[in-house]
Amino acid sequence: YPIILAAAGAPTDWSVFAMKAPGGLALLLLAFATWSLCRTYVGRGIAAIATLAVTLQPAVVLDANYFGSDVPFTAVSALVLAIIFRQLARIEAGHPPGAGLLLAAAVLSTVAFSIRSNGAVLPCTYLFGVGLLALRGRLPWATAIRHGVAFGAATGALIGLYFAVLPDGTPVVLLEVDDL
Known about the structure:
Layout lengths: L1 H8 L6 H24 L4 H12 L2 H7 L5 H23 L6 H17 L6 H14 L5 H22 L18
């Protein structure tokens, strides 16, 4: 997240308004993710009401106006969950999951983890979901295990890259805005 703030602030001589842009964009992403997640299970009208209820809460709007990581983390997490639940609904309907979307969910899980470390639990949602589908007899256990291991391994590998070190030995995770 500091890298995103630096990308927004550095070209504008650290303008306060430019530094608020990531929060505003995250609020838009949260609206899209909420809509997508709700549309998987309910009609458009209820999805629209839920989206308005989530994105127009005073606390959410206020947090989006600050430099904090609350809204960006929530937005990325909601998008990961929207992708995961959409894929689980596809599997339950007898369609294969989209490999590209699952890879996007793995990448976004890593982004969520880079914003806040509790983003590491997001892949567990998919593992739990395919396990539940297997328990209900909607997915063969071998397929559930294969899907879970592949998704977990992809996310784990990407999170592992987050802990990579620079040529001078500095861990990437310790980089801050001032270091850029």
